[in-house]
Design goal:
about 425 residues, alpha+beta, BirA Bifunctional Protein, domain 2, Rossmann fold, 2 domains, 5-stranded mixed β-sheet, 15 helices, binds adenosine-5'-triphosphate, binds magnesium ion
Length: about 425
């Protein structure tokens, strides 16, 4: 029978790579809680209409990237293509906004039917934060700093923060007219996608990655020149806060973000080391979203950070340096030794937070050492008939390649204690 492979655009994560994921997810949670953000978990699928309304009918996501299906009850369901819409749905359903502002984070998969390539998958994962109920630029600063701290913790100093403002319902319509006036005379020369976007949502043309569009995008008027006084003041306040915190940024009038619900601030962290899928984190303010989904007018700001892309950057920057060795490889030579060592390994797992590896196979010592290398063990704990007879156990330093003989205590707990102390 032919083996079945994973669907295109998905990937399996398994050891040792999964340890990186665990570490990054723990760091996301740790950084988020420093800012007073609590975790929210929402379903992987929602009513299709939620995304049509909450992401926007004219976005690439809704137009062509959603996994939509009819369930057995005939309802149209969609695998979430992003997590913000579900978060807002949950906020409204549980009336959480009645308690005042809400600071939430999420970690989990999302689904988009895209052309798979490095850094672009059909199932990918995001860490994201959402701050609801805070209209001021302090909240914009807060979410940007969460992403900046996480990047700094991993030494990702090459990622550049790009910021822009896309205005609000006062000034954006005027800008839309200016864009239309700019693009219309060149309509025939634009890419097919952009020709379609022209009348429906000309801002989206700025987001185009098609080389055909580039010259017209580069000469387009910018939103920053069309901001109303309120939007201008908000953007100036954010820039002053970023300066005060020493967060470096560049003004990039071309970033508009793909989603319709953004207002005012939009931002991206872009890394130079992972090729064309270079946006590690994207976010901004979406003051109209909660209302769009049937809630009270509520400002919001947040971001989504691609876990896969973040880890690609980490890997690129780290080169192929092996992770530090940790823990013990228990190696029993012979039946009697195995019986003793099984108990010692059990006691080690109670006494030490570092891993104790063991496979209990009857093999040559050299084969066991190979396994220890594969596991990244720091020490080997070796017990054979000789050692049993002498009442000793061998502790091998797998980096220095040196052996020490330690007394084999009466109980497994005693032996474990001796080993922990000898390796502290
Ligand atoms: P892009 O312009 O790269 O398509 P986007 O604007 O569609 O990104 P967002 O919806 O803002 O992306 O998602 C936030 C982050 O999630 C992105 O910055 C990126 O790191 C990650 N991301 C988005 N789509 C994918 C994907 N298909 N595979 C892997 N990561 C993704
Ligand atoms: Mg996209």
């Amino acid at each position: 029978m032919t083996p079945i492979s994973a669907p295109r655009g998905t990937r399996d994560v398994y050891p040792p790579e999964s340890a990186q994921w665990n570490r990054l997810e723990a760091d996301c949670r740790e950084v988020a809680q420093r800012f007073g953000y609590g975790e929210i978990r929402t379903p992987m699928f929602e009513a299709t209409e939620l995304f049509a309304r909450g992401v926007g009918e004219t976005t690439d996501i809704v137009e062509k990237e959603m996994y939509t299906f009819l369930d057995k009850g005939g309802r149209s369901m969609t695998l979430r293509p992003e997590l913000t819409a579900g978060v807002v749905r949950a906020l409204l359903e549980h009336k959480l906004l009645a308690q005042g502002s809400q600071r939430l984070f999420y970690i989990g998969p999302f689904f988009r039917y895209e052309r798979p390539q490095a850094g672009r998958y059909r199932q990918a994962n995001q860490f994201g934060v959402e701050c609801f109920g805070a209209a001021g630029a302090e909240a914009d600063l807060e979410v940007i700093q969460i992403a900046a701290l996480l990047l700094a913790r991993y030494g990702i100093t090459d990622a550049v923060l790009n910021i822009n403002s896309v205005g609000d319902k006062v000034c954006r319509p005027r800008y839309r007219e200016a864009l239309l006036a700019h693009f219309r005379p060149h309509a025939a020369a634009l890419s097919g996608d952009s020709q379609r976007r022209l009348e429906r949502n000309p801002l989206r043309i700025l987001d185009s990655k098609d080389p055909l569009d580039r010259p017209f995008v580069e000469s387009a008027p910018t939103m920053l020149d069309h901001l109303c006084p309120e939007c201008r003041a908000h953007f100036a306040a954010l820039r002053a806060y970023l300066d005060a915190l020493n967060v470096a940024y560049v003004l990039n009038p071309r970033i508009v973000r793909g989603l319709d619900y953004y207002t005012r601030t939009v931002f991206e962290f872009v890394s130079s080391v992972i090729g064309s899928q270079s946006t590690v984190c994207g976010g901004g303010r979406y003051d109209g979203l909660v209302e769009e989904l049937g809630g009270p007018p509520t400002p919001g700001v947040g971001f989504g950070l691609g876990i896969e892309r973040f880890l690609m950057v980490v890997e690129k920057l780290a080169g192929d340096g092996a992770p530090p060795r940790r823990g013990f490889q228990a190696i029993a030579l012979g039946e009697a030794a195995r019986e003793r060592l099984v108990a010692v390994a059990g006691a080690l797992r109670e006494a030490s937070a570092a891993p104790t590896f063991a496979d209990w196979e009857s093999r040559k010592l050299t084969a066991h050492f190979k396994t220890a290398d594969r596991n990244g063990a720091r020490w080997a704990v070796i017990l054979g008939d000789d050692e049993l007879a002498k009442g000793e156990i061998v502790l091998r330093d797998l980096i220095a390649r040196e052996d020490r003989r330690l007394p084999l205590g009466a109980t497994a707990a005693e032996v474990a204690q001796t080993l922990v102390e000898a390796t502290a």
